[in-house]
Amino acid sequence: MKYDHTDALNKATELFWQKGYQGTKMRDLQEHLDMRPGSIYAGFGSKEAMFLQVLDCYVEQSLLKIDEYDRLATHPLEALKDFVSGFIFVEGKLENSRVCLLVKTVSESETSQPKLHTHALLGLKKIERKFTALFTQAQQLKLLSQTANPEQLGKWLQMQIMGLVIYSKNCAEKEDIVLMIEHIFSTLRQPS
Questions:
Q1: Domain boundaries in the chain?
Q2: Are the C-beta atoms of residues 26 and 40 closer than 8 Å to each other?
Q3: CATH fit for domain 55-186, picks 1.10.357.10, 1.20.140.10, 3.30.70.240, 3.40.50.300
Q4: Are 138 and 75 in contact (CB under 8 A)?
Q5: Confidence (pTM)
Q6: What is the reported pLDDT for 179?
Q7: Are 154 and 129 contacting, i.e. CB atoms less than 8 angstroms apart?
Q8: Do residues 165 and 143 touch, judged by C-beta distance below 8 A?
Q9: How far separated are the first and last CA of the chain, in Å rounded?
Q10: How far apart are CA 62 and CA 44, in angstroms?
């Protein structure tokens, strides 16, 4: 039986996101992907190798989403704000928000799976560099102070997203999160 590699990775992503790496057993993957163990090993090598591919795919999809928001936005800060809003309000709904798969992996794997931990950290770094590039563009467009540090802002934005996701799990009010996102970006704008 033939399988679609991309479809299998997407299904594996959902399963790993729900159960985490440690909580996902090979039997879970077999059932969720509707694949035999031999096909999983032939297609991916191992559970760990599959998970590394899942992380890479997640990073690539995140970077593509940021690029898409950038193409549609009038300026880089708007693109970043739209990305954050889209990440928090998945399909427009606060209840669909999930902790970033990379952050989840980092928090669950530090001592038990150092290879996965390091790989997830590298993925976060790639996304952070994309944020930094957009902050640099915003600075060049004079939307940010010339004394702002785009690299620090890239790290800061990641921290803001992590905090918003965790807070949104305890906050039922969409309006509160919308105001927080607005506040995050209003503090960045260069005074006119």
A1: 55-186
A2: yes
A3: 1.10.357.10
A4: yes
A5: 0.90
A6: 93
A7: yes
A8: no
A9: 62
A10: 22
